[in-house]
Amino acid sequence: MEALKLWKLAAQAGEAEASYRIGMLYARGEGVVRSVPDAAIWYERAAQLGNIDAQFQLGLIFLYGANPVLGPYRHETWYQSSAARLGDEAANVQDLIFPHGTSVAKDVDTAFRWISAAAEGGKAEAQTVLGNMYSEGLGCTKDFQMALGWFQAAAEQKCAPAEFALGDVYYQGRGVPVDFEQAAIWYRRAADQDHVRAQVALAFMNLKGAGMPEAPAEAARLFQSAAKHDDAIALYNIGLLRLNGKGVTKDLDLAETALRKAARKDYLPAIQALAEFYSHGAGAEPDLREAATWYEKAAERGDVQAQFFIGRFYATGTGVSPNIRQAAKWFERAAENGHATAAFNVAIFYLNGSGVERNVETAIKWFERASEGGISAAQVQLGRLYSAGNGVPRDQKLAGEWLSKAAVGGDPDAKTAYALFLLHHDGSADRLAQVQSLLTEAAEAGYAPAAFQLGAMQMGKFGGVADVRGAIPWFTRAAKAGHVEAQYTLALLFADPNSGVNDARASATWMTAAARAGNAAAQFQLAVMYCTGNGVAQDVAQGVTWYESAAQQGHTVAQYNLAVMLGRGQGREADPKKAAEWFQKAAEQGMAEAQLAVGDALMSGAGVAQDRDMAVHWYQQAARQNNEGAVRRLRAIGLTLVDTER
Where are the alpha helices (DSSP H) in 428-467? Predict the structure, then answer.
């Protein structure tokens, strides 16, 4: 390179500018192998001769230090390549190529000396850096007044970074009283020179009305100007303003674009905002897949709430494929970072062995952590674990302490759990009064299970004389709140002619509610009511429908009755094949009548292929339960139960 040759000649003649230029070539890797140590050597030659640019650059090198260059042309690559080809001579080759080494150690004292020299020589950028060094006490004693003086000197030269620094001085009150108006003046001067950080700082002042009236439109303009330089903070904030239509026209597309740009720069608030944006839709349809993607990114960055949310997403299959192991991982991460609800969730996972190996000891640890975070459900779980001795030694004293602590917190579920604990462990009159009080408080707070238990107490479940009329109001309160067992209990009470409250229509109403909620016993009873016209208009087809609902949940008698009706064509078109299938299901659950029916179907070929041996098998099963019909069938074909068992 001709310029390098000429500059070297000039440098040998003592020309400071030439040495500075050669230093720049090495710093940039232009025409030579990039080498900061070599750059420093040439900068120092120029600096010694009074070149302020060289003094400044040399000061910066020592201020920050310089590690070996990274990438395919890093110094280690040269050395490794030489070592592969030259062996022991590699060190000599490296010394030839990099005679001054491959790195420069950080040295703030030397940095301060050279930057001071450049600042005293009038270089504005050096004066600004020197001001920062005095502000932070780098290479010198911290001195805000000296910092202020150097910032002012640089600002007089219209140096934007210095003007911004002065804005910070007055905004933060560093060595001067806090003065938002002065801060705004200096930020404005720097912002007018397109200084991005100054634009962002001034935008915040306009947005908050600090030292000036609130001006959202001006804030938006400044954020937008800084965002053109791809500043993550500016992109994030203009995104929020566009999202809310504050100071700028609301535009979800532009808001999303800005937030996404900031998020791609790994700016955590933008990642969090995008997750919320897609999760809630913000005026558009939610996109839970995108929400999951951004929540997971925020979670990976250590955001606790995001760790909890992505754990919940994996647990429920929201926006991602369900993955209990991933859910457990993220709940545990969030729990380790102090998220109480996550601690409770991961405790449940360890207790049940969901996504992790079952470990009651670890579950207890997390329940205790959740309890410390105010989760009363964790205290209830601890009480139940120690009471039942589930994976831990049974300890009723400790169980009572945890449940009592939970109840004191006021949670209705906790009060109910403690009340039931007392009922089962202390039947004294005093305890019963305390139980009644706890359950009443929980029920009055709208907790249906507590109202149901009060009804059960009135029915004499825990001792005493049954008072049906006293129980009805509590069962009704629970039933109206959607408590299915209360609905079914009410239906049975109203259906019982000896209850003193017999009311077939009321029974049908509550039986329907429980049946629709999925209670198999209620579905069976409702089927009977429709088939007999008890409390409802007789409707055999409806009866078949409800028998089928109960049968699908495994209700044995419903399976048998459904099979009978399908076989006879009652309420539905006759279907011997389906009838045989339902008889089989009931038979497999041990119902003798169904076993007899399956045997008959196999013997006759009604809905199934004839199979005498299997028919005998089912007759045998029913006969073992003393079913007379099965015994007669066996005798009719010349067998006895004893014969078939030989």
Answer: 429-444, 448-458
For residue range 226-257, what is the model confidence (pLDDT) as tens digits?
999 999 999 999 999 999 999 999 999 999 99
Distance in angstroms (rounded) separating the CA atoms of residues 583 and 523: 18
Mapped onto helix, strand or coil, the DSSP state of residue 281 is: coil
Closest CA to 521 of 500, 543, 551: 551
Long-range contacts for 500-509 (Cβ within 8 Å, ≥24 apart)?
500/468, 500/469, 501/468, 501/469, 501/472, 504/534, 504/535, 505/535, 506/535, 507/535, 508/534, 508/535, 508/536
Burial (CB count within 10 angstroms: exposed 0-12, middle 13-18, buried 19+), residue 188: middle
| Residue 644 burial class via C-beta count within 10 angstroms: exposed 0-12, middle 13-18, buried 19 and up | middle
CA torsion through residues 325, 327, 333, 339, sign: negative
Strand partners, 66: 104
pLDDT tens sequence across 113-133: 999 999 999 999 999 999 999
134 closest CA partner among 99, 74, 191, 175: 175
Query: What pLDDT was estimated at residue 409?
Result: 87
Q: Rg of the Cα trace of the chain?
A: 41
The residue ranges of the chain whose pLDDT is under 70 are 1, 69-100, 282-284, 427, 640-646
| CA 218 centroid distance within chain | 36
- Expressed in percent and rounded to 5, the helix, strand and coil fractions of the chain are 70, 0, 30
Q: Are 239 and 248 contacting, i.e. CB atoms less than 8 angstroms apart?
A: no
Q: Would you mind telling me the total number of residues written for the chain in this entry?
A: 646
If DSSP codes are grouped into helix, strand and coil, which group holds residue 104? strand
- Between the CA of residue 88 and those of 75, 80, 322, 471, what are the distances in Å? 17, 11, 58, 96
Place of tokens 């003094």: 55
- 354 φ, ψ (degrees, to nearest 5): -100, 110
